[in-house]
Peptide methionine sulfoxide reductase MsrA (Bosea caraganae), 244 residues
Amino acid sequence: MSSLTTRLSRFARPALVATALLALAGIALRISPSAAEEARVIPAPALDQPAAQGDGPQVAVIAGGCFWGVQGVFQHVEGVSNAVSGYAGGERATAEYEKVGSGRTGHAEAVQITYDPRKISYARLLQIYFSVAHDPTELNRQGPDIGPQYRSAIFPADAEQARIAKAYIAQLNQARAFEAAIVTKIEPDRIFYPAEAYHQDFLTQNPTHPYIVINDLPKVENLKRIFPEVYRAKPALVSRASSN
């Protein structure tokens, strides 16, 4: 149920947010990573697609709650050259933040990830997605955000991505990797629409925003802790990619 007013309150009421931050700072120090969505070590995908020698950049689109944190996680993944916040699942005419926030557009807040398959595979990205980027057992919500626009969903680019995603969900459910069943939907043939500029690189540009401190920074820390071999300290920012 987060709205533009609540989630972007720092722009409208910076003095109030600064005051609240002093109180939140002490709280944040006592919050475990489960406050963001509980991260966990899960089995590696049994099915993957080996990269051909001549493969160029590939694209993956996923949704798992507020796109600020999901984008922030994948910007720190080695092999990812760009991660863009946006919308997928609905029509172009409704791909706007205030409209999507109604929960009636069919869109989910999503992230489009451009990656080098010679450095990281699609299935490996899904392992990070299920492990640290969100909780795949939450139906139409993540953390404090409620509604179908915050659903867990994968938007495969082709039949092979859909096959890998389905197989991995089945594998994790069979292994009982989570206490509850995975509710992630696979939604093929959906177009991704980039979100407004003020949503891009939000985690990096606003590391002291209360929402980011409580809900999203723990995700990046969990990436570093659980996947140290693919974590990189310098994020791949949208602003940097667009300036090249």
Residues 4-243 form a domain with the Peptide Methionine Sulfoxide Reductase; Chain A fold (CATH 3.30.1060.10). The beta strands are 58-64, 80-88, 108-115, 141-142, 145-146, 152-155, 185-186, 192-194. Residues 1-6, 9-36 have pLDDT under 50 and may be disordered.
